[in-house]
Amino acid sequence: MKQKTVLMLTCLSAGAFASDNIVDIEAIKAGMKYEVYGKIALQAHVRDYENSPNLEGFQTNNESRIGFRGSKQFAKFKPLFIWQIESGYVDPSYKNHEASGGLGERDTFVGFEDWDSFGQIRLGRVLTPMYEIVDWPGANPGMGDVWDWGGLIGGAKFQDRSSNTVRWDSPEWGGLSVDLGYGRTKAAAVGNDQGWWQGGAAHYKVGPFLVSGAYELNRNTKETLSYEKPGTTEKKVSDSRIWDNNTYLASLQGWFDNGISFFTQYRWQDASVTSGIDTGRKEKQNALSSAIMYDIADWQFKLGYAKNEELHVNGKKLAGTDDDVISFQAMYYVDPTAVLYFRARDVRMGDNKVPVRGGQDVAYRRWKSDSFNEVSVGVEYVF
Description:
Elements: H1 2-18, H2 25-29, E1 32-49, E2 57-62, E3 65-72, E4 80-86, E5 108-114, E6 119-127, H3 129-135, H4 144-147, E7 161-169, E8 176-184, H5 186-189, E9 196-206, E10 209-227, E11 237-255, E12 260-276, E13 282-284, E14 287-296, E15 299-308, E16 312-313, E17 316-317, E18 323-335, E19 338-348, E20 353-355, E21 363-365, E22 372-382
Antiparallel strand pairs: 1-2, 1-3, 1-22, 3-4, 4-5, 5-6, 6-7, 7-8, 8-9, 9-10, 10-11, 11-12, 12-13, 12-14, 13-16, 14-15, 15-18, 16-17, 18-19, 19-22, 20-21
């Protein structure tokens, strides 16, 4: 009976909405805009790994995606209502080739904007202010393995594209703009921890330069570790701990009339254990990323370098835990909306073994990619 009632109400509501006698269709369409957009992006590469021969050889990285976005000017509310829903990548390389690219996997939100007053506010799944700078320009060309998701520090140095987020972007005030965000972590969304984050970024344009700074704190994120415990018959022991993290970033970009441009970024990261095994443990690891570009006619040449410095645990440096990548890219604009490119890079990843407790020999391994070199070609078309 309840299902029939709901069905009747739904049908009546739909009928009323579609009736020109009750609803003015032209009024509904007034102030409404929407578009389909996306990117066709395919990279074919060959890798040579240091210790993972099973991964070597040819693979493709299909980052093609599609999205829908629009706006509506409400009749009795001045700020513009905005919305977006965007799919994920169709088939990233080194994945298990299961169905991917579902709608909502990338930036998907609702919000309001009025750039003459408060700016823009969004609620849903968006980039964090910190990660927006980390991802672009800091991770290009092909430096994300080190600069983006690389490193060894405990906890969560930053979120990336985060659901359960509210983000505010200010208008530009004489060259200055500000972004602020707050949200819950992915694990907290399903009750695996009580994690949350908040952060912000500021940007200032002066002449040919853009100066940016960002900060993000992550609290109450959980780490589960498995290791062999001396003096027990068990092969593996599982423990957990809760981390708090602070991450700071400074960035400088410049563009010049002679075709040369550059960026350089430096990131300071610290983490501390607030409860669980080895409470009071403190870790630090800093990182840098830089690139120089030269544009001539329809070509762009780009050389980039990124590095994670060695991890410090309770003030002691763990030698050999640093990583770096050097990458070269030549890109040709075959159309204002499309490029072809060639890229070669060498990724060197250091040791991923860390002590279970500060000052003890018992150790376990945190995830880190193997070292490799890569040659690739790709195409990107934006529509």
